[in-house]
């Protein structure tokens, strides 16, 4: 989940033949597009399935499974298409967890947050225009679910999601080049999201992503319980990032990673800051 920094690209930049966008700007565009892809497919699946099966008597469980699968596949694709440019965060909570783990600078995190929120809003606007002005469905609490319950649920689900992100895509990224666990990171992350939606969707919608909640909320102008979808995921992602970075990583033998790769990971804070 770390932006790539290639010697060949730096040499091209020095020769004046590099990319049109600076690295941070390119990463922001990648996060904007990837988040828009995810929110469009995720929110669109909820609305589309509701339109298809509203009057057919289809069991709600089947619809829930379809929604979970749509979210899982959409997130897997979004992470995959952005991973080589921005790290494929696609989620302000994930960016916060990576920030807590000191794998990204605060300045780059702010750029990512802005891009992710704008991407979510763009996707929600497009979804409103396509069906003729219908407002996005958005997220909400189930019957009898209090905000404190939803807060705990969002924190717990996002903790699991962020732990999977850290384990497969943030730490020891050199393994993905060797065909290790990092190679399946997008699928693993998407599957965790889908499983959590099956578990928590009936209770609070299972956002685990402030951008996923923010885009439809802004376009549909529905802010009821909205703070839950920010505070819960941020708490869960921050705890997971801190646990993996400062407990699990410290327990790993140094022989697991080449010295150069380990040093590069530790220099990530400074490397990101060089981009802007």
UniProtKB/TrEMBL annotation:
<feature type="transmembrane region" description="Helical">
    <location>
        <begin position="227"/>
        <end position="247"/>
    </location>
</feature>
<comment type="similarity">
    <text>Belongs to the MIP/aquaporin (TC 1.A.8) family. TIP (TC 1.A.8.10) subfamily.</text>
</comment>
<keyword id="KW-1133">Transmembrane helix</keyword>
<dbReference type="InterPro" id="IPR000425">
    <property type="entry name" value="MIP"/>
</dbReference>
<dbReference type="InterPro" id="IPR034294">
    <property type="entry name" value="Aquaporin_transptr"/>
</dbReference>
<feature type="transmembrane region" description="Helical">
    <location>
        <begin position="62"/>
        <end position="82"/>
    </location>
</feature>
<keyword id="KW-0813">Transport</keyword>
<feature type="transmembrane region" description="Helical">
    <location>
        <begin position="178"/>
        <end position="199"/>
    </location>
</feature>
<dbReference type="InterPro" id="IPR022357">
    <property type="entry name" value="MIP_CS"/>
</dbReference>
<dbReference type="GO" id="GO:0005774">
    <property type="term" value="C:vacuolar membrane"/>
</dbReference>
<dbReference type="InterPro" id="IPR023271">
    <property type="entry name" value="Aquaporin-like"/>
</dbReference>
<keyword id="KW-0926">Vacuole</keyword>
<feature type="transmembrane region" description="Helical">
    <location>
        <begin position="20"/>
        <end position="42"/>
    </location>
</feature>
<feature type="transmembrane region" description="Helical">
    <location>
        <begin position="110"/>
        <end position="130"/>
    </location>
</feature>
<keyword id="KW-0677">Repeat</keyword>
<keyword id="KW-0472">Membrane</keyword>
<dbReference type="Pfam" id="PF00230">
    <property type="entry name" value="MIP"/>
</dbReference>
<keyword id="KW-0812">Transmembrane</keyword>
<feature type="transmembrane region" description="Helical">
    <location>
        <begin position="150"/>
        <end position="171"/>
    </location>
</feature>
<protein>
    <submittedName>
        <fullName>Uncharacterized protein</fullName>
    </submittedName>
</protein>
